[in-house]
Amino acid sequence: MKEPVIKVRRLGKKYRIGLRRERYRTLRDVIGEWLSHQGMASGTADDEIWALRDVSFDVHEGEVLGIIGRNGAGKSTLLKILAQITYPTEGEVEIRGRVGSLLEVGTGFHPELTGRENIFLNGAILGMTRPEITRKFDQIVAFAEVDKFLDTPIKRYSSGMQMRLAFAVAAHLDPEILLVDEVLAVGDVAFQKKCLNKMDEVTTKGRTVLLVSHNLEAIQHLCRRALLIDRGAIVRIGDPEQVCDFYRQLVQGADGNRAFSYEGGNYKIRSVVIEGEGGILKTFAPAVITADVAFAKKCSDPHVHLFFRNADGTNIFGLGSGDLAGQTVVQASESFRFVFRIDEMPLLSGDYQLGVKVRSYDLGINEIVPVEFPFRVSQTPVYGTTPVSTRWHGNVGVRASVQILPSRDLKVQGA
Amino acid sequence: MSDTTLIKVIRPPRGWWSINWAEIWRYRELLFFLAWRDVKVRYKQTTLGILWAFIQPFVQLVIFSIVFGRFAKMNSDGLPYPVFAYAGLLPWHFFAETLNRSSGSVLGSTSLITKVYFPRLIIPIAASVSCCVDFLIAIGILVGLMVYYGIFPGFGILAVPLLIVLTLMPALGAGILLSALTVMFRDVKYVVPFAVQAWFFATPVVYSVSVVPARYRWVFMLNPMSGVVSAYRAALLGTSFHWTYAALTLVLGIVLLAWGLFLFRRMERYFADVI
Question: CATH 3.40.50.300 occupies which residues in chain A?
């Protein structure tokens, strides 16, 4: 087997919290430290944070490795060490080949310079040589779609144009090893697609790529191996599907709004998804339930009824598409999407079941789906700061207030 | 780029490393681009553009000629005061600008430092390159003055490239030193303008070295800029030249540069974390 192109061994990076929070040291601090006999690099243990600790892995030539993890898990620190922007506190990394890093698009763009000038400047900053930029100049311009504005200072560009230009330069960088951080999240949908295609092209060319992203679809699509970092350590490494699944569980816990499906005799529930804001269901927050249902034949009177049940199976409330829509006849089709919007989720935190009934008189279907879909409402403060519990608060939240007033008239008998 | 694979090992920094000049050379194009950007951006959207590189030192010269030449009647070693003063102002302006710009340069490049790797030393060096461009333009004024007053330099003029190096050493040394310190301690940013102003009066720009009592002249010469300014006058205007002072200036320049490089090298590893 060939030597890995990147060898990471027991890598660790310690930050002093003071340093991390961008609180810079003033001369006064230093003088203070000298007086208290502390050196420059020292600090007490409790204002130190290990952003990364004991991380070891290998990357082989041509491999596309996705790196995922929550915010602050250490992904960016890892990438910054590999890109030599910051130094590790312990451990070592061995890299074979030219490294190009793309931790942010548009690094070094200067608003006063023209598009043309910025292409050269940015290219040089990213490590391209002048002949290389000249050679790729036309491609870059075409990719960014800014040919008419090449000699305009980029401060006159729209932010979308700036982004496109920035990504275009970056996308034409070809080092042997490419480190990419979250750049897929730029521009409009059409441009994002273009970027993904470009990434596809790059990854299939046999280049070694390390990609940090929150976009799990992109990771699963582009990478052959994924690495999950949490709290500065590697939690999982391996098949992207499995690692991403593990990550979803880690992030969402059982709050996950999984897609559920069921296949009936002459109908099929492709998926039922219940979603809250930011992927989490909260009391009094909006929620959206999307049900994709397909029938064996065309019909024009589809109906879906949802039952919200507690863990014992007691029905707490129900929503029917027919009741809400006011009429059930729609344009005939074989499959339908039902989108229920709840303005304020009344359920308190806890585990619930979602039951579904599907009906179409045209097709003679009127059936309660025999499986229930579990979902969870997460703990949120509803009544002051007290955590709600089923035992005391039941399943439903209400908006209420109380007044407590002194009173002389009532007396407890015998007192 | 050679075909042999580059093997790079990233380790926690220990002690102080020697400067990787080969790497800086590899990044020379970036250095060029950064300097080019500085020059280009400086006079963008100004009506007079690059003319400002003339106007600034010229106006300064006019003011000094009136205040120190006319009113104060400063001793100018028997030369017309404007020529005398400008021969000092030229290297001083070059020095002060290099010091100013390079000392703030690293902090001004925060976005680069936290996002891309390249030898950090390139930043203050690029800032000083852009000052050289202004210096070369400002030389034009001196040529004009010398023609006007009918002063023609001797072979001393051949020493000008050497003089540029002699000026750059302390300027870059102090600039590099301060650029690193500014990242660590923002206080430095406020100290630099004062320090430069004080330094200006400690340097024989508007007055002649001859006003300094001979007994104290060696103390005075511990300021590398004193030697630099004297050397410019000697080379261009034919005033007296002292080899010992020139040697001392050279040594001071080297020391300052080495100190700057050493400190920069030690601190640069923390830049991305602190800036």
Answer: 6-252
CA distance A130 to chain B (A): 8
Could you tell me the fold of the domain covering A260-393? Coagulation Factor XIII; Chain A, domain 1 (2.70.50)
Among A89, A112, A126, select the one facing B44 at the smallest CB separation: A112
Q: Does residue B2 form part of some domain?
A: no
Per the structure, the complete domain to which residue B226 belongs is given by 21-274
Question: Which residues of B sit within 8 Å Cβ distance of A?
Answer: 1, 5-13, 29-30, 32-34, 37, 40-41, 44-45, 111-118, 184-187, 269-270, 272-275
Q: How many domains does chain B have?
A: 1
**CA dist B245 → A151, B78, B209, B222, B242 (Å):** 51, 21, 12, 9, 5
Q: Which of A24, A93, A107 sits opposite B111 (nearest CB)?
A: A107
Tens digit of each residue's pLDDT, chain A (415 residues): 578 889 999 999 988 765 444 445 566 666 665 555 444 444 455 567 888 989 999 999 888 899 988 777 888 889 989 988 888 888 999 998 888 887 777 777 888 889 999 999 988 888 888 899 999 999 999 988 888 888 998 889 887 788 888 888 887 887 888 888 866 555 566 776 777 777 777 777 778 889 888 777 778 878 889 999 988 889 889 998 888 878 877 765 444 455 677 887 788 888 888 887 766 788 888 888 988 899 988 888 889 999 999 877 789 999 998 888 766 667 888 889 999 999 999 999 887 888 999 988 888 888 888 877 878 887 777 887 777 777 788 889 998 888 888 877 767 766 5
Chain A, nearest residue to B108 by Cα:
A108
What tokens does B108 get? 């001004």
Question: Which residue from B40, B41, B115 is facing A107, i.e. has the nearest CB?
Answer: B115
Task: Give the residue from chain B lying closest to A104, CA to CA.
Answer: B115
Q: Residue A118 and residue B220: Cα distance in Å, rounded?
A: 47
Structure tokens at B230: 């004297």
Assess contact for A223 and A64: CB atoms under 8 A: yes
Cite the residue boundaries of each domain of chain A with CATH code 2.70.50.60: 260-393
User: A6-252: what CATH class?
Assistant: alpha beta
Question: Is the full-model pTM beyond 0.80?
Answer: no
- Chain A residues lying within 8 Å of B32, measured CB to CB: 124
E strand or H helix at A65, and its extent? strand A64-68
Q: Examine residue B194 and state whether it is found in any structural domain, yes or no.
A: yes
Q: Could you tell me the two tokens for A26?
A: 């003033």
The alpha-carbon radius of gyration of chain B (Å, integer) is 20
